């Protein structure tokens, strides 16, 4: 029995981890997800380092192919040992984070413990999964002697982390689409200055939705796929519909909790809250899996901006896109209406038949509604809160006054916690801190000083105020710009094929 099934048809073909990450599309248009969530006593893993904990998570959730099944896995991977070696190698990349022994440290403000997930190369939490993910993916591709084209559309953080992850990896090419003018300057520089030969970055004349839907069309474009095939490329994606991302995002929630036990803040078994600024729900899904396998989490609090479709869903059971249009905010990574990973929650709580029914309704009527009982079940695991840009800025300002600098996404999560605090008795919580302030320096500096500044000025202003900036971010401003091309979404297909062909010679 293999660990992964489709969210929309669990009795169709099953998958192992390798197949699920190479070919993320599951039967019936579903997503690959874990069939079973075993109960695990995580207190047994208190003494492990981060990479050892990651392996323990993979083994316990059966993500890692067990030795005994090695021979039945020949289609996907040469053998279980090779996969274990690839994983060991990939996990070494965490040693490049700020603290080689702890990729995700805590910062305490009262009973709020910020789990800082941004100490990797591109300064956002996407590195927590994408750093090892690229290395694993490439090693599998090489093992199978296959070439992959990875497509990614980004609103700002996924792009840089994906490029960093796959740069110079064998058997891989990456095309990254970003909305020209729609990201912060730092985010854009992180992409367009990347010198690796196997990547191509296009600015899109349009918004993130345009880039995203152009990409989705390509995934189903027969002519495009055949053309890639004739150049010996298969297509894959690296966003959080890919379970490879989710797998690594389960680990740090457990790590955060165990750190609290180790430093004496809590006793193992004490329930705490987990607060997550959410967009595509990949980070929150990791927390959900951790909770379902026994990590003592009271509730997962989903924090959103003005695009508050997740708040409405968790509070009312109604997921309704039909009346909404996407609004730009200071927390662009959460500007999203179709939150892909909610589908995996629906599967875990209500099963494949109901998930398919709900998602069909979303496709046909841009809406679905849970029953009263289903909503009650959802609310056993989740709470939700949202706030607008003005409130976000005031949270950044008041937190700065306490001597701590947070980015707009983290600020919304902290706001959700403070709101909860006002109603409960100062509960202990892990706040997922998803980006370093430096990626959103103009909004952070404006929150604190009321001045409108560009990226360079804002970074200087923040450093005057005692902020530390990572050398990798500062260096960006002096790097040559390599990817200058800005295209219309109608030209994407042609330009990608042209690049693949020209590179062959
Ligand atoms: C991607 C991102 C999020 C949203 O995470 P999801 O897993 O998509 O819910 C929040 N904050 C930042 C800074 C991000 O880059």
UniProtKB/TrEMBL annotation:
<dbReference type="InterPro" id="IPR000634">
    <property type="entry name" value="Ser/Thr_deHydtase_PyrdxlP-BS"/>
</dbReference>
<comment type="pathway">
    <text>Amino-acid biosynthesis; L-threonine biosynthesis; L-threonine from L-aspartate: step 5/5.</text>
</comment>
<dbReference type="GO" id="GO:0004795">
    <property type="term" value="F:threonine synthase activity"/>
</dbReference>
<dbReference type="InterPro" id="IPR004450">
    <property type="entry name" value="Thr_synthase-like"/>
</dbReference>
<keyword id="KW-0028">Amino-acid biosynthesis</keyword>
<dbReference type="InterPro" id="IPR001926">
    <property type="entry name" value="TrpB-like_PALP"/>
</dbReference>
<dbReference type="GO" id="GO:0030170">
    <property type="term" value="F:pyridoxal phosphate binding"/>
</dbReference>
<comment type="similarity">
    <text>Belongs to the threonine synthase family.</text>
</comment>
<keyword id="KW-0663">Pyridoxal phosphate</keyword>
<protein>
    <recommendedName>
        <fullName>Threonine synthase</fullName>
        <ecNumber>4.2.3.1</ecNumber>
    </recommendedName>
</protein>
<keyword id="KW-0791">Threonine biosynthesis</keyword>
<keyword id="KW-0456">Lyase</keyword>
<dbReference type="InterPro" id="IPR036052">
    <property type="entry name" value="TrpB-like_PALP_sf"/>
</dbReference>
<dbReference type="GO" id="GO:0005737">
    <property type="term" value="C:cytoplasm"/>
</dbReference>
<feature type="domain" description="Tryptophan synthase beta chain-like PALP">
    <location>
        <begin position="112"/>
        <end position="343"/>
    </location>
</feature>
<dbReference type="InterPro" id="IPR037158">
    <property type="entry name" value="Thr_synth_N_sf"/>
</dbReference>
<dbReference type="Pfam" id="PF00291">
    <property type="entry name" value="PALP"/>
</dbReference>
<dbReference type="GO" id="GO:0009088">
    <property type="term" value="P:threonine biosynthetic process"/>
</dbReference>
<feature type="modified residue" description="N6-(pyridoxal phosphate)lysine">
    <location>
        <position position="126"/>
    </location>
</feature>
């Amino acid at each position: 029995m293999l660990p992964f099934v489709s969210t929309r048809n669990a009795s169709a073909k099953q998958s192992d981890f390798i197949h699920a990450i190479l070919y993320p599309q599951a039967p019936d248009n579903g997503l690959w997800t874990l069939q079973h969530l075993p109960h695990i006593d995580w207190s047994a893993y208190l003494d492990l380092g981060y990479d050892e904990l990651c392996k323990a998570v993979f083994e316990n959730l059966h993500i890692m192919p067990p030795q005994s099944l090695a021979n039945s896995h020949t289609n996907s991977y040469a053998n279980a040992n090779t996969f274990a070696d690839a994983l060991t190698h990939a996990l070494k990349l965490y040693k490049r984070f700020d603290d080689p022994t702890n990729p995700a440290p805590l910062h305490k403000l009262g009973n709020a413990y910020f789990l800082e997930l941004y100490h990797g190369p591109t300064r956002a939490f996407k590195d927590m999964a994408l750093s090892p993910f690229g290395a694993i993916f490439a090693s599998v591709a090489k093992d199978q002697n296959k070439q992959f084209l990875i497509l990614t559309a980004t609103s700002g953080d996924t792009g840089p982390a994906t490029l960093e992850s796959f740069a110079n990896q064998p058997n891989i090419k990456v095309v990254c689409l970003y909305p020209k003018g729609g990201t912060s300057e730092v985010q854009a520089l992180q992409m367009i200055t990347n010198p690796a030969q196997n990547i191509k970055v296009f600015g899109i004349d349009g918004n993130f939705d345009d880039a995203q839907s152009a990409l989705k069309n390509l995934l189903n474009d027969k002519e495009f796929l055949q053309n890639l095939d004739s150049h010996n490329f298969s297509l894959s994606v690296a966003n959080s519909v890919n379970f490879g991302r989710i797998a690594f995002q389960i680990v740090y929630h457990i790590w955060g909790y165990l750190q609290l036990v180790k430093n004496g803040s809590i006793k193992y078994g004490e329930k705490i809250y987990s607060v997550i600024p959410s967009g595509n729900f990949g980070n929150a899904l990791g927390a959900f899996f951790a909770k379902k396998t026994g990590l003592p989490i009271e509730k997962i609090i989903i924090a959103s901006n003005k695009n508050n479709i997740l708040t409405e869903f968790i509070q009312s059971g109604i997921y309704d896109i039909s009346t909404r249009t996407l609004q730009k905010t200071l927390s662009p990574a959460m500007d999203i209406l179709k939150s892909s990973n909610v589908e995996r929650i629906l599967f875990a709580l209500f099963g494949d038949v109901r998930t398919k029914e709900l998602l069909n309704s979303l496709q046909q009527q841009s809406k679905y509604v849970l029953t009263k009982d289903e909503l009650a079940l959802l609310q056993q695991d989740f709470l939700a809160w949202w706030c607008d840009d003005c409130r976000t800025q005031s949270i950044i300002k008041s937190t700065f006054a306490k001597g701590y600098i947070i980015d707009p996404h983290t600020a919304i999560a902290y706001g959700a916690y403070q709101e909860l605090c006002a109603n409960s008795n100062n509960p202990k919580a892990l706040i997922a801190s998803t980006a370093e302030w430096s990626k959103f320096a103009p909004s952070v500096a404006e929150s604190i000083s009321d001045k409108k500044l560009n990226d360079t000025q804002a970074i200087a202003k923040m450093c005057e105020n005692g902020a530390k900036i990572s050398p990798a971010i500062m260096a960006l401003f002096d790097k040559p710009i390599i990817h200058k091309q800005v295209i219309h979404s109608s030209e994407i297909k042609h330009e990608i094929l042209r690049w693949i062909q020209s590179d062959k010679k």
